[in-house]
Amino acid sequence: MFQALLNKSKELLRHSGAKIVAFGIRRQLRAFEAATLDPQQAQESLLRRILSRHASTDFGRDHGFASIRTVADYRRQLPVSPYEYHEPYLARVLKGEWRALLSEPYVEMFALTSGTTAARKAIPVTAQYLSDYRRGWQIWGLKVYRDHPQVKLRPIMQMSGDWEECHSESGRPCGSVTGLTAKMQRRLVKKTLLCAGRSRQSERFRGQVLFGPTPQRSPVGRYDHRGQSQHAHQLGSRRRSRKRNADS
Fold first, then answer.
1. Is the confidence at residue 195, as pLDDT, over 80?
2. 93 vs 184, higher pLDDT
């Protein structure tokens, strides 16, 4: 009897907590839906905010962010370019020189690409990045709950990667951003997960420094000039080979 009452109380608390959390997200959803009525204005407003925020960075000064007034100005001063064009700035950020590319004073981690077609690329994850990332998922999740009420408070199966596979030269973790967001989730959200939110960390990469200034030895092989171990490169080659065999 007591256990049944306890379980009922926990369920009511979870339900109340979910309503409180959803209240703020509903406002974000309404703002998002309003923005879809005039996407051009919404995108141009966002572009102006980004340019203003990063105008004082080295990248912003080199590309005249402060003088950009129109989309045409932006396209002229910063044409479409590959990752390699930004790599010198990112290399400095990896060393801890945040102002080379970012206006924020701190980098939480570096998200790594899979490295399937080339060396793994590092994407700086800042507080603003995390805020935008979460807001997108929260809006999507609330709309799912609104359109499919039968799934409310049902167990959630979450899959995330290791956010600390290795470290940058500045000591910041490098890995999967999903691992960091899972670690930072509210306790209320964690209680709805189907299993405990644990990420199996890659012990073979523990303590490794990725994208260092000089080639160095690692537990999994020798780094090439891009900072990727030969072992990781071989794994990527094997995946591509298996995919080609499957397609044929």
1. no
2. 93
The answer to whether the beta carbons of residues 243 and 231 sit under 8 Å apart is no
Contact yes or no for 188/174 (Cβ under 8 A):
no
Question: Rounded to the nearest 5°, which phi and psi values hold at 218?
Answer: -140, 165
d(CA 211, CA 121): 10
Least Cα distance to 183 among 228, 144, 125, 103 occurs for 125
Location of structure tokens 């890659």: 202
Q: How far is CA 1 from CA 7, 15, 31, 171, 182, in A?
A: 10, 21, 46, 53, 35
Least reliable range by pLDDT among 68-72, 104-108, 187-191: 187-191
Both tokens of 118, joined, read 């080339």
Q: Taking all residues of the chain, what is their mean pLDDT, rounded to a whole number?
A: 77
| Secondary structure class of 102 (helix, strand, coil) | coil
What is the pLDDT, as a whole number, of residue 247? Answer: 58
Question: Strand pairing partners for 174?
Answer: 110, 166
Tell me, what amino acid is at 237? S
Confidence grade of residue 148 (pLDDT, cut at 50, 70, 90): confident
Instruction: Determine contact, residues 122/172, Cβ cutoff 8 Å.
Output: no
CA angle 111, 117, 119 (to 5 degrees): 50
Helix ranges (DSSP H) in 55-195: 58-62, 71-77, 83-94, 127-147, 177-183, 187-190
Length of the chain: 248
Assign 133 to helix, strand or coil: helix
Percent of the chain with pLDDT strictly greater than 90: 40
68-71 contacts, C-beta under 8 A, 24 or more apart: 71/44, 71/47
Query: Mean pLDDT throughout 65-80?
Result: 95
